[in-house]
Amino acid sequence: MRRRASLVLLAFAVFFAALSPLLRWYAFPRLAKIPPNQYQETVLEAKPATLLDYSTLKAEKVDKITIVQTLKGNVEESEKIERSAGRDVVVWDALSYVQGPDGKMVSKIPERYIFDAHSQDPVHATGESVDGDAVSREGIEFKWPFLTEKRDYEYFDAQTRTSSPIHYKGTQNFRGMEVYYFEQTVPWTKVPMPKTMPIAITPEQIAETGITRWYTTKRMFWVDPVTGAPVNGEEIHKEELRNAKALGMSEDTVTVFAGHVKMREDYIVSIVDLVKSQRLLVLLLTSYLPWGFLVLGAGLLALSLWLEARSRRPGEAVTVRRKEPEPAPTPA
């Protein structure tokens, strides 16, 4: 019985020891993915800020500028692209909507972001765009890969339509979580005019006057390394119109928007709670279960060897009583 139990335990030990790396290196890359129907809304604010008043054509100080960013999964488009790409694809229809202190629209820039559901690598397909302009992204945008590494990543900037490194600057503690801090500075760059403007004038009409739009920003993200989700983001943002006298402005360079943009507190709390719940699922597949199965397999192996050793010990000696010969019969 001991030998039979030892063989059963040995079989289970081999099973769990083999399951440990399979779960981490085979199952996790296939099971961990972004759902195609995800919807997320984030509100950011710049308080105070500088904003161009198009009625007076002057930059003025305002109490607050609000930026509403929405990400909406387009399931129909993702399924269409998956059929030709042969892999799991997510399509996000994003919108960055900027409004002034009076609630009126300042600008809105739509995007279509297409990426691999597992690795977050961009997938180039018809429809990939920023503000109606076709783009071909390189690097990440909005989200880092699962199990983010302590290194620089290429990050796509929607204003310039280009990618540049976003630098890993160290590990920090944010709301009780260990996060990676990343930073990117985009130097002054000439960028296109938004297609939708708060005045009855088109980008083409502005371009004819010789006016150009320039932009710079310092972008900061605090990223949960397990899920790759940013739990906080900030930007020190500035936009200018140059050759502005062509539009009747008093100065040749006029600030369109300038401010330190920060995520609103209630959205930080909501995102941190969401990320904490999701990171447990990733840790189960990458750490808790693989290591648990490995320890369990080692324990079962040790128990199996112990039972096998006990089954091989010499048993107690059995004393056999010799039968005494019967006395010979007495002769008659």
How does this model look, in words?
There is one protein chain. The protein has helices at 2-31, 75-85, 203-209, 265-311; strands spanning 39-53, 58-62, 65-73, 89-99, 105-116, 129-130, 133-134, 153-157, 162-174, 177-191, 212-223, 230-242, 253-263. The two termini are 59 Å apart. α1 (2-31) runs antiparallel to α4. It is an alpha+beta fold and 332 residues long. It contains 4 helices and 13 strands.
Number of strands: 13
SSE ordering: HEEEHEEEEEEEHEEEH
Poorly predicted runs = 316-320
Mean pLDDT: 89
Name the shape in a single word: elongated
Sheet bearing the most strands, described? 13 strands, antiparallel
Q: In angstroms, what is the radius of gyration?
A: 33 Å
What helical percentage do the residues reach?
25-40%
> What share of the residues does DSSP label as strand, in percent?
35-45%
* SS summary, helix count: 4
**Secondary-structure-derived class:** alpha+beta
Query: What is the first-to-last residue Cα distance?
Result: 59 Å
Give me a quick take on this structure.
By secondary structure, the chain is of the alpha+beta class. Helix content is 29%, strand content 38%.
List the helices and strands and how they pair.
Layout: H1 2-31, E1 39-53, E2 58-62, E3 65-73, H2 75-85, E4 89-99, E5 105-116, E6 129-130, E7 133-134, E8 153-157, E9 162-174, E10 177-191, H3 203-209, E11 212-223, E12 230-242, E13 253-263, H4 265-311
Antiparallel strand pairs: 1-2, 1-3, 1-13, 3-4, 4-5, 5-6, 6-7, 8-9, 9-10, 10-11, 11-12, 12-13
Features:
alpha+beta, about 325 residues, about 40% strand, single chain, 4 helices
